[in-house]
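Page 47, continued from p. 46.
Same chain as before, 357 aa.
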Amino acid sequence: MKRIRIKDIAAKAGVSTGTVDRVLHQRGDVSGKAREKVKAAMEELGYERNLIASTLAYNRTLTMAVLLPYPDTDEYWLEIHQGIQRARNSLQHFGLELNILNFELANPRHFAECANQLLSEPPAAFLFAPLFQLEGMDLARRLQAQDIPYVMINTRLVEANALCYVGQDAYQAGFLGARLLHTLLPPGKQPLILHLEQQVDNAPHLLAKAHGFRAYFGQTDIAITTLTEEIKVFDQPLSLLEQWDLINKRHDHIGAVFVSNSRAHLLANALTDHQRSLPPIVGYDPIPANLAALQQGHLQFLINQHPKAQGYLGASTLSDYLLRQATIPPDKLLPLDIVVRENMAYLGNLDILVGVI
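Result:
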C-alpha cells in the first residue's frame, strides 16, 4: 500500500504542508474552510494517521483536561475518579497526560474558574461533568469555538455538541425509579421526589430524572400526582430532620420517597437514628453508605449509575479519538441496573467487564 505523505494531502487539498501539519497536530490557527479541505483530502486519499506512533516518535505529549468535583466530596465522585485513574495509568505510556482539576460540588463559580484555568493552555481534549446548566453550556461553547473535542460524563447537556456523552439516560432513570416506587406506594398515598441538593434549578441531570419520574405517574392508567421538595442542608442530621418535618406538615399523604441522587442514605439514617417513621425509599448508586442502608432494609431499591465505569469510559473514549482517530458514537449509555439486597454481592461484574478494576 502506497505511503501517503503530508505533501500529498497538501496537494490534494490545495493548501500548504504547514497547514496540513497544524491540522494533524491540532496546533496553531487554521481556518475552518482550510481544516475541512484537509480532512476531505485525507479521507479521499484514505489516510489513516497513527497518532500513537507520532507522539512517541516526536517525543510529544498530548494533554487531556479533566474537570470534576473533588473526589472527597462523597463516595460517588470518589468512584468516578478511581475509574479515571485506572484509565490514566494505561494511557500515560502513549504520550497522553491527564490534567485533572477539581471544583467544589455546589459552587458553579468555582467550576467556571477551574474551566478558565484549564483553558489557559488549551488541551488536546476535555473531559468534564457539566453539573451546572449555565456554566456547563458556557464551557461547551468555548470548547467548540476553539475546536477542542470534549466528552461529558454523568450529566448530558442536550444543547451541547459534545463528541460523546458517557452515562445513563437520566429521563429513563427517573422513569425506572418511579416504576420501582410504584410497587411500594400504599393505596391513596402520593410519591415524593426529594432533591437533597443545593441548586436543583441549575442541575440538568436532576431535572431530567424528575421529568422521567413524573412522566411515569402521569400516564393515563396511573394518573397519580407527584410531590416535589428540596432539602438544601442535608449533611447535618438534625437540620435534615427539621426540613423533613416541615415537608410532612405541607403534605399529608406522602407514601414513598424517591431521592434523586446518591444521598438516599442520609435521609434513611437520620430517620432511623432518631426513631422516626421510615417510608419506602428508592435512590441511586450502590456506594458503601447506601449499600449498608439497603442491607438493613432502610432503602428498598438502588439504581446503579456505574460511576467507576463512567470515569474509565469517559477517559478511554477521548483517548481512542485522539490516539486512533476512532469513530465515536454520540452516546455511550450505561445500563439501568436495579440493586436489591439479593444481588448486592455481584456489583463488581460490570467493572470487571470494562476493565476498571
